[in-house]
């Protein structure tokens, strides 16, 4: 009886068209939540007593979810159940069916029947959109195709592709590179809305750098790393490095301080960059067993990168201005230069001050304030590309400054000593003047002082004569 009842409901839904029987399509991406609408727009069913959701399977209907007049809820035996009709929404006249983690097998025709004071029947056709790659894991240089599957056909829909959020005109990749890796989105536009399904493409190979356009900048005397990183799980059994000048294709010896590592990260390091190390460096790795058809096939992956050596050139004469020039072995990607002054404060704090935006900076007269660190910063289309520093040593200026400072100090000290001597002389003269003035004020004191001085002078002469007599003619007794 139940089967006959639902067949009748389906027949009514397919035959009648009107306010109580409607059919519509719903598109949803695989793996997302599907909401099959069943809403009473007329509010004719104010107090629904039963809700039935069923799905057409073959020539019959299969119950997906139902709620009887008694309020008893029935659902298929499934752990966990993915299809449910939220009962709290019934008060809003919304009897929509929610299907979580939608799969391609969920597509098909669904029937919603709501029984209350009146009966409402709606038919919903669920179409599932799936994006995929065949194969979804590829090696650089191989082929793959992006596919957008829509259950039930692609009638009256428009399909576009986006790669990492940007629209692309092709979904067939004949020569896969690292730039093709990432998320590819199938965008399906239909009458009623838009749905997007996303698939991830993994490209095995050298992930850093992504292509042969990489440029590495390094100053003379500094250390630089040349990247060559393979994707996770991909370990080459042999890695080689070669160097070729930018003006020829013949190999030249690697720098003396060149060191390479092994494993997934086969990056190399030049411990101390020298003038002449510029050129094209090639990292090559031999892979094995990456081809799906022939597991014994060996695949060679390689990446080329350019090393640009930077330095500051100084031009000056024995006496005259000094010119500092920011020199790069290849400046084709440089758009502008900037000179900056670098000063250091307490706790080794660094202060960088912009001086001028130019390739060459001219100093008219080098003084002690110009000594220290100067920095040339160079820019490209994408922003700052690197820096190169230069130290200015002003020994002559420092000595001259010290000598001048010493002369000034000696002059100050001499003037001070002279001032002190003059001061003492004037002070003594002033004391003598005061003493004489005081003596003139007291004549009796002046007489006493004069007599005392005369007596001391007489006694001095007498003592001298006695000493001379004793020495000249010795006597038995000399008192």
TrEMBL record:
Domain of life: Eukaryota
SMART domains: IG (SM00409), IGc2 (SM00408)
Lineage: Eukaryota, Metazoa, Chordata, Craniata, Vertebrata
Keywords from the UniProt entry: Immunoglobulin domain, Membrane, Signal, Transmembrane, Transmembrane helix
Residue ranges of domain Ig-like in the record: 28-122, 126-202, 209-283, 322-377
InterPro entries: Ig-like_dom (IPR007110), Ig-like_dom_sf (IPR036179), Ig-like_fold (IPR013783), Ig_sub (IPR003599), Ig_sub2 (IPR003598), Ig_V-set (IPR013106), Immunoglobulin_dom (IPR013151)
GO cellular component: external side of plasma membrane; membrane raft
Ranges that cross the membrane: 410-430
Identification of the protein by name: T-cell surface glycoprotein CD4-like
PROSITE patterns, A to Z: IG_LIKE
Signal peptide: 1-21
Gene that this polypeptide is encoded by: LOC109049851
Gene Ontology BP annotations: interleukin-15-mediated signaling pathway; positive regulation of ERK1 and ERK2 cascade; T cell activation
GO molecular function: MHC class II protein binding; protein tyrosine kinase binding
């Amino acid at each position: 009886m139940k089967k006959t009842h639902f067949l009748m409901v389906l027949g009514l839904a397919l035959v009648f068209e009107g306010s109580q029987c409607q059919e519509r399509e719903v598109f949803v991406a695989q793996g997302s939540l599907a909401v099959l609408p069943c809403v009473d727009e007329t509010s004719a069913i104010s107090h629904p007593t039963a809700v039935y959701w069923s799905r057409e399977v073959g020539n019959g209907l299969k119950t997906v979810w139902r709620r009887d007049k008694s309020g008893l809820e029935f659902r298929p035996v499934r752990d966990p159940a993915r299809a449910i009709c939220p009962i709290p929404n019934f008060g809003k006249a919304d009897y929509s069916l929610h299907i979580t983690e939608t799969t391609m097998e969920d597509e098909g025709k669904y029937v919603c029947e709501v029984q209350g004071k009146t009966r409402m029947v709606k038919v919903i056709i669920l179409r599932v959109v799936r994006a995929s790659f065949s194969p979804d894991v590829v090696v650089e240089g191989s082929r793959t195709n992006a596919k957008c599957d829509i259950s039930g056909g692609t009638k009256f829909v428009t399909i576009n592709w986006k790669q990492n959020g940007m629209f692309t005109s092709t979904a067939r990749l004949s020569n896969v590179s690292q730039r093709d890796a990432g998320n590819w989105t199938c965008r399906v536009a239909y009458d009623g809305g838009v749905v997007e399904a996303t698939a991830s493409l993994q490209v095995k190979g050298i992930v850093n750098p992504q292509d042969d356009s990489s440029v590495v900048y390094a100053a003379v005397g500094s250390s630089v790393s040349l990247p060559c990183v393979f994707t996770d799980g991909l370990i080459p059994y042999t890695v080689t490095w070669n160097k070729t000048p930018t003006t020829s294709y013949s190999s030249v010896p690697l720098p003396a301080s060149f060191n390479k590592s092994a494993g997934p990260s086969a990056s190399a390091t030049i411990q101390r960059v020298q003038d002449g190390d510029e050129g094209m460096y090639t990292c090559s790795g031999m892979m094995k067993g990456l081809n799906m058809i022939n597991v014994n096939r060996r695949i060679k992956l390689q990446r080329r990168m350019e090393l640009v050596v930077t330095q500051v050139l100084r031009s000056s004469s024995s006496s005259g201005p000094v010119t500092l020039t920011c020199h790069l072995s290849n400046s084709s990607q440089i758009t502008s230069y900037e000179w900056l002054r670098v000063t250091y404060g307490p706790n080794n704090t660094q202060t960088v001050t912009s001086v001028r935006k130019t390739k060459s900076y001219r100093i008219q007269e080098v003084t002690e304030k110009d000594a220290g660190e100067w920095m040339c910063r160079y820019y490209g289309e994408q922003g700052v590309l690197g820096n190169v520093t230069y130290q200015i040593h002003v020994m002559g200026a420092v000595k001259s400054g010290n000598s001048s400072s010493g002369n000034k100090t000696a002059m100050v000290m001499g003037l001070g000593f002279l001032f002190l001597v003059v001061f003492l002389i004037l002070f003594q003269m002033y004391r003598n003047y005061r003493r004489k003035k005081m003596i003139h004020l007291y004549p009796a004191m002046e007489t006493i002082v004069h007599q005392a001085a005369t007596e001391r002078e007489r006694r001095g002469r007498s003592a001298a004569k006695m000493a001379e007599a004793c020495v000249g003619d010795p006597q038995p007794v000399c008192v």
